[in-house]
User: Which sequence fits this backbone?
């Protein structure tokens, strides 16, 4: 970037009108050109909260929105920390903004669903890291600092914490943004106050003691948003249905059965690809960056007319929002009850037992609002002592939230449940 003069940088400075924060600034040429790149523009076509729009009709915002918002909060955090005397160079500031801007670039269609169906346990973090390397080559090494910060390989650990921790700019943005677009007001957090309360102590991101109540509200908001939005029963039902659709389509494609798909989608339906393939096979990455929500939705609409009875039925349920019933329980479901579910499902649908998995499944949901076993949030006392948030808080409800909540979940047909209930 040394060859770029100041006038050129200023010409590239852009101001965007964000519905959550108002006017936000893209501060320099590099960030602007990253945003203009097709890898990043693809995020316009990937929903931020997957299938949540089937519960909250306004939740149609995208990963593109979120990444820009997180970049804005990162810029605000850096300015605030500098005001407190924390030394952050221009290169480090740009690197932190690059890291947060690109932290979700590896997401597949409909957020996490692709990680469980089309590819073999390849997380979006893995793919984000690989795509950052590709972009770094394109921008002649200008992203190197950002990549090191993203991977926690940069000497200043607190910069990575701003990107990925229990109090990072990613979480601060998605809670506010998802709350705004879903209308779930419990997710509203005071981003500006939290950012103003951040400090650095011994290369660790900490919170000033007077900001503890804002952090408590942040933890509670995150817990409520998970149960009301991200793990809402209907949202979870829709995501499970989508995973089952893609799994069925993949089985049919690998058996040589003709199935409509875009070129990129067909590439992942025909073969299994894991982490090593993403690293070594250029064609895998090339097809992945062509995939977005439209590939999946377009295929599902066509598959409603497919000759395979199970695939067409699953797709019709998705298109017409005829989703699975979701039953939650603190205790495991009784074997006798599951056997009755199994028999009734097979009887109603007239399917083979081997295909029962598409209509009857048992799983588990976990919600951990604050994990004080790792990557903790520390409160900086006026005395200079660091104290874990759970220890510093006088809110017993917050202390209770350090323990993850696990629930057993059963996916079944509504007609089957109704029959068994008599």
Assistant:
């Amino acid at each position: 970037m040394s060859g770029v003069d100041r006038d050129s940088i200023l010409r590239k400075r852009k101001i965007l009108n964000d519905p959550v924060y108002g006017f936000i600034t893209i501060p320099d040429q590099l960030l602007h050109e990253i945003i203009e790149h097709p890898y990043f523009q693809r995020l316009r076509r990937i929903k931020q909260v997957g299938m949540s729009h089937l519960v909250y009709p306004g939740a149609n915002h995208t990963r593109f929105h979120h990444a820009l918002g997180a970049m804005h909060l990162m810029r605000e955090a850096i300015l605030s920390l500098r005001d407190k005397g924390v030394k952050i160079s221009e290169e480090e500031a740009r690197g932190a903004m690059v890291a947060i801007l690109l932290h979700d670039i590896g997401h597949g269609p409909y957020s996490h669903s692709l990680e469980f169906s089309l590819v073999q346990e390849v997380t979006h973090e893995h793919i984000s890291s690989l795509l950052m390397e590709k972009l770094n080559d394109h921008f002649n090494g200008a992203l190197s600092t950002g990549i090191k910060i993203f991977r926690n390989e940069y000497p200043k650990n607190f910069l990575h914490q701003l990107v990925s921790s229990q109090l990072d700019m990613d979480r601060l943005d998605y809670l506010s943004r998802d709350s705004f677009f879903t209308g779930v007001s419990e997710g509203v957090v005071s981003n500006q106050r939290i950012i103003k309360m951040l400090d650095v102590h011994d290369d660790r991101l900490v919170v000033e003691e007077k900001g503890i109540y804002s952090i408590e509200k942040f933890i509670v908001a995150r817990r409520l948003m998970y149960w009301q939005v991200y793990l809402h029963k209907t949202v979870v039902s829709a995501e499970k249905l989508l995973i089952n659709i893609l799994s069925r389509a993949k089985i049919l494609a690998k058996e040589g059965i003709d199935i409509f798909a875009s070129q990129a989608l067909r590439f992942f339906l025909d073969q299994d690809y894991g982490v090593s393939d993403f690293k070594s096979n250029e064609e895998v990455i090339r097809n992945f960056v062509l995939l977005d929500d439209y590939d999946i939705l377009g295929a599902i609409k066509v598959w409603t007319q497919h000759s395979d009875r199970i695939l067409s039925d699953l797709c019709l349920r998705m298109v017409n929002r005829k989703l699975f019933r979701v039953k939650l329980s603190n205790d495991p479901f009784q074997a006798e009850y599951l056997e009755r579910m199994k028999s009734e499902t097979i009887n109603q649908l007239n399917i083979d037992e081997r295909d029962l998995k598409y209509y009857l499944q048992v799983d588990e949901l976990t919600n951990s609002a604050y994990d004080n076993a790792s990557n903790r949030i520390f409160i900086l006392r006026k005395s200079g002592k660091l104290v874990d948030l759970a220890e510093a808080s006088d809110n017993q409800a917050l202390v209770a939230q350090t323990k993850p909540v696990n629930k057993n979940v059963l996916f079944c047909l509504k007609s089957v449940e109704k029959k068994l209930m008599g």
Remarks:
- The domain at 6-102+143-215 is CATH 1.10.3210.10 (Hypothetical protein af1432).
- Confidence is low (pLDDT under 50) at residues 1-7.
- Strands lie at 14-18, 22-26, 198-201, 204-208, 325-329, 361-367, 378-380, 386-388, 405-412.
